[in-house]
Amino acid sequence: MKGSVFAILLALPLSSYAAEQMIPAGSMIQCTVSEPKLSSKTTDIGDPVLCHVSHVELYGRSVLPYGSYLEGRFEDYKDPGHFVGKGWMELKFDRMFIPPGQIIPISAKVVYVPKYNVDKEGRIHGNGHPVRDTVEWLIPVLWPIDLLNLPRRGPRPVLKPETRLTLKIMDDFGVPMTQEASYEQQPSARDSYGYSQRPPITYYAPPPVYYRPMVYAPPPPPPPPVTVLMFRNGRRTMATEYWFEPGSRFSYVALNGTPMVFPTDMLDLPATVAVNRTRGVDFTIHSAGY
Q: Beta strands of 122-265 (E only): which ranges?
């Protein structure tokens, strides 16, 4: 009984260890800064800094899932001097977020930033412009401008968007393994000939797609042209149908379907013909019943 209990207690740490992938100290991880412009001019000490982790492989297998990122702080900085001296800033990363919601404490130090020098303490130093300054001082015409710019503050490091940082892991830490990675660690079964066997892969066929036959209906007939009726008093109206009636009367059907009747001498025939001709509509006079 005691031996079985001891075996169970011994198996617990082993099983938890097998569920993690250890990343040893000294490993290099690259991440991309998400802020538009990160510098001592736009960030205060203690402000959070996010850095999206790039693809990391260990022993030919992906270790960190997609969407992982590092969280750190804007640790310290020094602005450049008025006449001499360059500025620097320091970033500290101490936590890693792994989807869907796991937080892992880490210790990482920045060791490389493109176009900037990084010292052994992880400080990112600003760069001067030696080539530009040398060329400008060789041109006598630009000397007054160089003298005016001399008292100005020197360069400070600024991390532009999508700047990729390289960090060095200072302490070992474990990353929870995905289901696919855990499956690779399990010993595979072997057949009678000694060859490795994997569970058969089940392929699921997509459901059949049924297409309905397309029925082509004839297009609806175009609506009748709308005729503009001009009156002698300057009023105008729109009609879908019109005709002359006995007794010198003129009838028409308005756009809302209401029939209207008025004396014929109120209609300005020349103006009605001219307006409809410019619209490309024929004004044909006919009597009732035609």
A: 123-125, 164-169, 173-176, 189-190, 196-197, 227-230, 236-245, 249-254, 259-263
